[in-house]
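[step 3/7] fold_predict: job queued, chain A
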Amino acid sequence: MNANLRYSAKFEPDTVGLATSFRDIPEALSQADSPEQAHELALDALAFYFDERRAIPLPSAVQRGEQMINCPLM
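[step 4/7] structure written:
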C-alpha cells in the first residue's frame, strides 16, 4: 500500500529565487531558482525526517498562500 502525507508549504520570492518553508516542520527549508525546482527541493527538505527516523508530525490543513506537497511514506 502506498500512503502519502500532505504538508502545507509556502513558496515565497527571495533575493535569489523561491524560498520554501513548512508550518508543521519549521526545520524543513529550501531555496530554489524556479517553481519546478522549488517543488522538487521541498520534498527533499521533508525527506530528512524519514532519513533520520524522526517522529513525523501530523500535517495541518492548508492555509491561504500555501500549497500541498505529497510526501510518500517510506
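[step 5/7] annotate
The chain has one helix and four strands.
The chain has one domain: 4-72.
exit 0
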